[in-house]
Design a protein that fits this description.
This protein is of the alpha+beta class. The chain contains nine helices and seven strands; from the N terminus they run αβαααββαααβαβαββ. Helix 2 packs across helix 4 and helix 4 runs antiparallel to helix 5. It binds coenzyme A (COA).
């Protein structure tokens, strides 16, 4: 595979990216559902997604950024310095909000229940447990796609992990997600593991951050 070229940074795009905040949760939930509505979390519905993002932004294990134009959030990335610790943390602290929202979502879409059970074993099947830094979700309005806005947001996220001492980052996606696969391969992500998760073919990619020509260890996100 050829080495990725340095990333041409557009200062205006970079300036429109800021850390995700509690107030962004409802808009981020909408963007999540618009692009990933058929995923497990998406099918639990907007109230659940909103609770999930509110819980994540309050977690010290969370890193997230939004791309804004004026007051309008038009895209986001959400990840973690350690996903399993983050999920355990929010399940413990926010169960009273997440539990009822998930139960209501499951009542509306009962077919998600077995999927929820399978999620418990997710960390066992997705691999790369030795890579704690992870990009979990991202979504951009369709008009922004293919313009490297998402590429800038990725860069900001990877720069943040590198600044916090992470040598690698992982991302799991569906093998047939053309947009995501094209972008990740262009960044130089390596396909480390394939597995089937609830009937879907998944791939876990890992990227070396150290010495990567597009990554500069720079922190733009408050550490809680
Ligand atoms: C997945 C997703 C975030 C990718 O975003 P995107 O807008 O296609 O990403 P980018 O604009 O950064 O472009 C990706 C690639 O397209 C090509 N490209 C984009 N703009 C280009 C340009 N001006 N010139 C040349 N190539 C270009 C490049 O190959 C680029 O990669 P590179 O910048 O590393 O060279 C987006 O499709 C999306 O929001 N999808 C819905 C949600 C989703 O699937 N989320 C991912 C779950 S893991």
């Amino acid at each position: 595979m050829t080495q990725p070229k340095p990333f041409p940074v557009d200062a205006a795009v970079l300036g429109a990216i800021r850390p995700m905040q509690f107030r962004d949760a409802s808009r981020v939930a909408e963007l999540h559902r618009a692009a990933m509505g058929n995923s497990l979390w998406g099918r639990l519905g907007l109230p659940f997604l909103q609770q999930l993002y509110q819980a994540m932004v309050d977690s010290p294990w969370f890193i997230g950024f939004v791309y804004v134009e004026g007051d309008d959030v038009r895209g986001f990335i959400a990840g973690s310095v350690d996903t399993s610790k983050m999920y355990r943390d929010i399940a413990r602290r926010r169960f009273m909000f997440l539990g009822p929202a998930a139960a209501l979502g499951a009542l509306r879409a009962p077919s998600v229940v077995p999927k929820l059970v399978e999620t418990v074993r997710y960390f066992g099947v997705s691999g790369a447990e030795d890579v704690p830094g992870e990009s979990l979700f991202c979504s951009f309005e369709p008009q922004l796609r293919g313009k490297r806005v998402s590429g800038h947001v990725n860069k900001v996220f990877f720069d943040e992990l590198a600044a916090r001492g992470h040598a690698r980052v992982k991302i799991t996606t569906e093998t047939d997600n053309e947009g995501a696969n094209r972008q990740l391969l262009s960044w130089g992500f390596k396909d480390t593991r394939r597995f089937v998760f609830y009937g879907k073919n998944m791939v876990t990619y890992v990227l070396d951050l150290v010495g990567h020509p597009r990554v500069e260890p720079t922190s733009r996100h408050p550490a809680i």
